[in-house]
Amino acid sequence: MSDPLWTLSEFVEAAGGRVKGEAGSEIGGISIDSRTLQPGDAFVAIKGDRLDGHDYVAAALEAGAALALVGEQKLSELPADGRYVVVPDPLDALRKLAIAARARTNARIVAVTGSVGKTGTKEALRLTLEPSGKVHASVASFNNHWGVPLTLARMPADADYGVFEIGMNHPGEITPLVRMVRPHVAVITTVQPVHLEFFESVEKIAQAKAEIFDGLEPGGIAILNRDNLQFDLLRFLAATAGVPEIHTFGETPSADSHVRNVASYPSGSSVDAVILGQEITYKIGAAGKHHVKNSLAVLTAVCDLGADLAKAGLALDEMRAPKGRGEVNRLPLKGGELFLIDESYNANPASMRAALAVLGEAPVKRPGRRIAVIGDMRELGAEADRLHAQLAQPIGEAGIDAVYCAGPHMHALWEELPQKLRCHYAEDAKGLEDVLVSDVRPGDVVMIKGSLGTRMGPLVEALKKEYPPADDTAAA
């Protein structure tokens, strides 16, 4: 039987609280969602923008929570016979738990940030480190002011490796998070024009991403994208922050880790590369040049963490793009099938260009077509229309045959597109649903992408409902 994540006494001391009721003596996990809570978990009643976790304490206790971590001011509103650890502020207590979890582990830690590719890189690190030891990594995109401390507080004391994703859309957000994580290795995948609603320039975004250097452990290593236009600035900021060692990755042979040759195929790539002076050949089980680029950062981090490079390279063949982030489904149609690339989770100019490039690399058997179904990219401020219109160039370069657009900013792109590429424009994604479902034909490759608020995901589900895949997770 495995050791508990926390004993009650450890939990109470770390959180800085007091016990009320018959709290469980052992805590198997930490949850902030009463719907997915497992018996024996501690339920943390966080107050968010829309919901207050205290409203779900009763449900969590009924589901078998070992205890609920609750705010003192809310105690009178909760079931009198409940099992509680009472604190002034549950979110602050979660941060304290995170700091205590970090202090008790000897794990080697890597933190990932960047404008694009954070979650994919984090998942690839999880996959490539597993052959070398026990890995703890954040689930989904738990990369914000509650996701990072929650992930840390969940880290077992005996983990060998920890993998953390750190996000931001305002200056100053990364610093307090990375100072909790205290990584030995920090990866910046790339810096691109995203969140321009909150930043006056791409250089300001680079400065915000460079906050990840503030929490590096003494002797820590920064891994930077040598091909990125902000590389020189990031290298300077790393040096200014006292980072003693910088490793680079990219297509240029001058990068410490670089590609020598790539062969692409429908479901992935075969790569010959040099990683910190070591030659390696490996396969990646997800399609797209961006996965190849980020694999260089991943394997560099594996080496810097002291893990096994050869085993890591073999593990990348098991990599799959997750739902909403490049997952490929084969949908049967009368007379054939279509390939559906689900990129619906989110979008910014850099990730949109990467997704369009993946679509361009996809083999098409004529009369099948490469079809881009794209919705507005959010948080781009005054530059939004210009950045949408500029997508006409990568669409042309990718050899895309048909474009469906949704959202007011996408109209700027619609105006730039050649008439032969225009299939349908709608003010919102829902307006594309009927026409898209009826228009697709055997041999088509369809890529769907847009910012989360544009709600492109239902278009993916509409196609899968109309043309159900035999195996809903089947990758091409």
UniProtKB/TrEMBL annotation:
Leader peptide range in chain numbering: none
Transmembrane segments: none
Pathway(s) it belongs to: Cell wall biogenesis; peptidoglycan biosynthesis
One GO cellular component term noted in the UniProt record for this chain: cytoplasm
Principal cellular location given in the protein's record: cytoplasm
E.C. numbers: 6.3.2.10
Keyword terms: ATP-binding, Cell cycle, Cell division, Cell shape, Cell wall biogenesis/degradation, Cytoplasm, Ligase, Nucleotide-binding, Peptidoglycan synthesis
Lineage of origin: Bacteria, Pseudomonadati, Pseudomonadota, Alphaproteobacteria, Hyphomicrobiales
Domain Mur ligase C-terminal per the UniProt entry, residue ranges: 340-451
Family in the record: Belongs to the MurCDEF family. MurF subfamily.
Pfam families reported for this sequence: Mur_ligase, Mur_ligase_C, Mur_ligase_M
Function: Involved in cell wall formation. Catalyzes the final step in the synthesis of UDP-N-acetylmuramoyl-pentapeptide, the precursor of murein.
Reaction(s) this enzyme catalyzes, per UniProt: D-alanyl-D-alanine + UDP-N-acetyl-alpha-D-muramoyl-L-alanyl-gamma-D-glutamyl-meso-2,6-diaminopimelate + ATP = UDP-N-acetyl-alpha-D-muramoyl-L-alanyl-gamma-D-glutamyl-meso-2,6-diaminopimeloyl-D-alanyl-D-alanine + ADP + phosphate + H(+)
GO molecular function: ATP binding; UDP-N-acetylmuramoyl-tripeptide-D-alanyl-D-alanine ligase activity
InterPro entries, per the entry: Mur-like_cat_sf, Mur_ligase_C, Mur_ligase_C_dom_sf, Mur_ligase_cen, Mur_ligase_N, MurCDEF_CellWall_CoF430Synth, MurE/MurF_N, UDP-N-AcMur_synth
GO biological process: cell division; cell wall organization; peptidoglycan biosynthetic process; regulation of cell shape
Subcellular location(s) per record: Cytoplasm
Name this polypeptide is given: UDP-N-acetylmuramoyl-tripeptide--D-alanyl-D-alanine ligase
Annotated ranges, domain Mur ligase N-terminal catalytic: 26-99
Domain Mur ligase central as annotated: residue spans: 112-301
